[in-house]
Design goal:
The complex is a heterodimer of chains A (297) and B (273).
Chain A: H1 3-40, E1 43-45, E2 52-54, H2 58-64, H3 67-99, H4 105-117, H5 120-130, H6 137-144, H7 159-184, H8 189-196, H9 201-229, H10 233-238, H11 250-260, H12 264-291
Antiparallel strand pairs in A: 1-2
Chain B: H1 2-29, H2 33-36, H3 51-58, H4 61-92, H5 99-110, H6 115-128, H7 135-159, H8 163-171, H9 176-187, H10 189-205, H11 208-213, H12 222-227, H13 237-257, H14 262-266
Classes of the chains: A mainly alpha (297), B mainly alpha (273).
Chain lengths: 297, 273
Amino acid sequence: MDSKRLSRWSDRNLKYLLLAPTIVLLLMLTVYPLVFALAASLQTVSVRTGERSFVGLANFASIFSDGLFWNALGNTAVYTGVGVSVEFALGLAFALILSESFLGRGLFRTIFLAPMMLPPIVVAITFKVIYMQKYGVSNWLLGLIGIKGMLWESGPQTALFSLILVDIWEWTPFMLLILLAGLQSLPAEPYEAAKVDGASWLQAFRHVTFPLLTPAILIAVLLRLMDTLRIFDQVFVMTGGGPANSTETLSLYVYQAGFRFNNVGYATAMSFVLLVLTTVVSNVFISRLRAEEVFTQ
Amino acid sequence: MTSRLLRLAVLLVSALVVVFPIVWVVSTSIKTDVDIFSIPPILVPKAPTLSRYAELVTYGLFSYLLNSVIVSISTALATIALGTLAAYSLARFRLPGKWNARVSFWILSTRMFPPIITVIPLFQLMRVLGLVNTRLGLVIAYAAFNMPFVVWMMRGFFVEVPRDLEEVAMVDGCSRMHAFLRISLPLVVPGIVATAIFTVILSWQEFLFALILTQTSVSATLPILVSSQVTQYQILWGQMSAAGTITMAPVLVFAFLVQRYLVRGMSFGAVKG
């Protein structure tokens, strides 16, 4: 092949040549592990001999009678449900405040976005310091208004709530960021029309802002849901799942089953449940987003 | 007027809630034990000390720092190099049928897998390849989880470059590859820089893969140093805060640099800021 023909051939097939490395990499590092995990979930490995044996769906079956699994699922659901709802409500409120123009708005925006940019692990230890027993700031503040100190992340009753509070501190800024961007890109005409029709602020919000903001809302909530369903870092460092498993989330339980108790088959089986859960939840949003034509371009 | 004052009050209180924890952890990192365990808690240490940082240095701080720098920069370079090509292809060419949308979406969907599901098989793969506890192993794992982000960000930037520019060059006898290298690529350089910085930030703060794929200061990164200050028996409050401060400082600087692209970066390019 002479060079001219070679260059014509490469021009024709350029689209595939450029895509290939990325696709191969992703196949090797995400699809292959997934297939491997599926195979592992159907096996059990003997601790004594290291011998693998095929057990069919036994690992999946034992999930259903495992109280610790249901506990982890429940914690994950509460964490996700409460966390994401509060983050959305607060994020929307602050986005509405910051979408008006006033002196110092840019500065407030910059400050408010900081928590989201911090490494999650740093956020976790920061709140460990704040929640410190006896000497912590949070209990000192409660003392100022005459409330007795709490155990925060080390008390079985308060631990999950304390972790959710950290998540809200860290990720409300994300909702604010996306929703504010959504608000600022809204067209002006519908509002002028609503004004002419004599709509109140609340009516304009319900019938104009909210529908137009839907794509941004869907994206923001979807990305937060995906991240909280898999929550690991903060829980690992702040409580390790304790006390008395009261903060154990699905990812953490999978980690413990796989790496502490070396029960790889069972751990991967549970991780598939998490995958299915994430996929089902995401697909609800993604199909709405496709209807809104966000992911098509 | 009252509503404006109310707004200002709400914003000021919220700003305090946001800033206070960050300031507090930095101040804890320069406190002696006496100041850390003081009632009432004090913000400005009576006897500021850098001894926490010194203790971290003897604990191997510089190896962790070096690992973090090498791993996050290598990850950014590798993913940008491969991902930019794929992004250009998806933005400019039409694959047969609906494959453009399908491939783009498949790439995005790999980011939706909870990492815990791939980390167990990946650990076993790395063990077979002898890559456990190496920086290379970590870079390979990070390249995979950053790739969807890079492809989607860069695809958005390429879509914004007018097609005509390249077509004019090609009429003048440029090959497609030349048109890409000479025309489109230079135009998306700001996008490449922003995407690279995001990739550095994401790799810098990653914890789960680092926890499982690294074991010692040979390859472990800063988040591991931070979390290892919480032991089963005690928490080293001062060192923990110092390690946290070191880990977050560069991230805050980088985040400030990419502020313009924050909306795009945090939404995979789905929302244009």
